[in-house]
Amino acid sequence: MSKKRKILVIISDQLRADCIEGALAAHIDLPNIAALRKDAVTFTKHFSVTNPCGPSRASIFTGKYAMNHRSIRNGTPMADGITNIAREMRKSGYDPMLYGYTDTSLDPRTRHPNDPDLKTEESLLPGFREVLEMRFQESYPWRAYLKSKGYDLPEYADFYDAISPDPARPARPDDPPFYSAEHSDTAFLTNSLIHDLSVRADQDWFAVATYIRPHPPLVAPEPYNKMYDPAGLPMPARLASPDDQAEVHPFMVGALNAPKMQNVVRGCEVDATNDADVQVLRSIYLGLATEVDTHIGRIMDFLKETGQYDDTVIVLMADHGETLGDHHLWGKQNPYEGAYHIPLIIRDPHNPAQHGTVVDAFTESVDFTPTVLDMVGQAVPAGMDGVSLKPFLEGTPPEKWRDAVHLELDFGEPTEITKWQKTTGASVHEANLAILREARFKLIHFNGGLAPLLFDLESDPDELVNLADDPAHASTLLRLTQKLLNHRMRHSDRTLADVKITSEGAVNFMP
Length: 511
Prior knowledge:
alpha/beta, Alkaline Phosphatase, subunit A, eight-stranded mixed beta sheet, four-stranded antiparallel beta sheet
């Protein structure tokens, strides 16, 4: 039976978990997220099961591991027959509203070759209604808004350039862009969300707001561009030099160049060998995260002022993380914690006894869709790998729960040989890895006959010492490899595998 309620999902792109709780939390001010945590349940061991943006969102919205939905890289089509959160919520009478983007590449079998939907990797996930288009590569409404405010618009490719306030000197990474904080992409999306929801207070609704920030390019409007002192931040967790990192594994040789630190800023020069530049970029990232926090506060105030706060389920999460200089790496296409460990905060107003509590059980991004469906009384379709987190929200955690998370990454391209492929020698079908991460040990298994990596997170939380070749850990390596194989076999796609056609019809089939 459907249990209609208001549901707001906020996704911040590329936000690390340790900005909320961990190494960076002491160096960043996120007062509105902190306030929400007091009114919600915080899941401290939450992980994105894959990256980058397209695959991570595919897993979030379908409840499936990448090995099952197979939209494994930006631009890889999502098979149209796979259901998702929007399609399932429609069965409960919701109009799934999107403010932002889903980064979905559509199934070419469902479109004419000339269809413009096949000319972008940032299409709309079927089932959603795109109330506000804020696609990273397009953002036409935001551009029109800036024009209406009197801005002389540069080429869109230059929108995220740092602009020197002094024509006599080149731009620096902590210089602001051409637009003000009042008119930023983050502010514009928030304005649009509040404007639209202001006339829906008497309705039940399902809305997903996806902020681009703090995703690079790392450029922030004032005051966020210089909000944090780079000299006061901790240095990245890393080996002594990039050369030392390259020695860790052939994959790392490619990873060090894809992307380089220089790729995360535009309109200015930075030096990856200069720690001062590294810290400036880290400070800008934190400033962008604080900008998102500011607007989360605006949304919470709006919900309270309109009497909707205590009627609204609120989910705050990220799609994946950001390495942010750890291991001399930037971006997210690598196997380290910064790329996968992300925040998850859920406020269920109907279970106030759990507000302010923390759950340290392992959770995965594929749990999102089953959780939301469970909360509205909609059956979870067969074939989803995630599990509802509703029992945790009710204070009745399951007796049996996962003791590890399963993570994936594909690093090949069908149209070119990537830097990772060049250094590993992996074919496009071999250019992938799978991770099994327990509380203590973490196994990174590479396809194509490449050596694995093994870390003891208890004694080495920064993942700096590879134990895979240590004979003393041979039994652990074997155990985790077998456990990883068992997990993948157990979670191979079961959308129809448990259905049986009989003389009485289809058994175990849920339309």
